[in-house]
Amino acid sequence: MLSVGDFGVGSVLQNKPTDASSSFISDADGNTLWAPANGCGFQSSYTGQRIAQLWITSGSAVFSRFLTTTDPQTPKSSVPWAQLQSAGTSDINFKEVTGELDLKESLSNIEAMDFKTFYYLTDEEKTIRRGVVAQELEKIDPQYVHSAKESGKMTLDLNPLVLDALAAIKALAIRVRTLEGETKAAAPASSAG
């Protein structure tokens, strides 16, 4: 039979984890060093050095991380949290359309991006990958990234990135269509002889 407080059940306010025990966890500190932000969640483990944590902030953002230390409050700067990205809502019933997107601005943003090859510092095999640097994309458009403030690492927000890529494709398609029209208009008439 469970009692109030077992595994954090029934606890109010803060229930910061102190060991690897499976439990409900929380932190009310908005400047917490270990949790992504104030909120709550749970953790589970199968040894003292294998702790899975799931966290939900007061703004409904969801984060997770897996620790291979014995400290469930390992700083997020040492072991960052991964933010789960929810699907973007495109339903007209949930938005107020305020105008048309400037396709040229989207194309300019894509043109300003520098694409890199890299490997992750934690990848022992040093597998070469391709991508971008989040800090560079933030300078182009802050909507392209999720801040490192909560998770401990900066991540990409794919919704505005994909939409700007689609807008840039449309801008280029319009440009190609215009150029094709100009080429046809300038071509001399063919004469059969």
Automatic annotation (TrEMBL):
InterPro entries: S74_ICA. It holds the Pfam family Peptidase_S74. It comes from the Bacteria. Residues 90-183 form the Peptidase S74 domain. PROSITE patterns: ICA (PS51688). This is Peptidase S74 domain-containing protein. The lineage of its organism: Bacteria, Pseudomonadati, Pseudomonadota, Gammaproteobacteria, Enterobacterales.
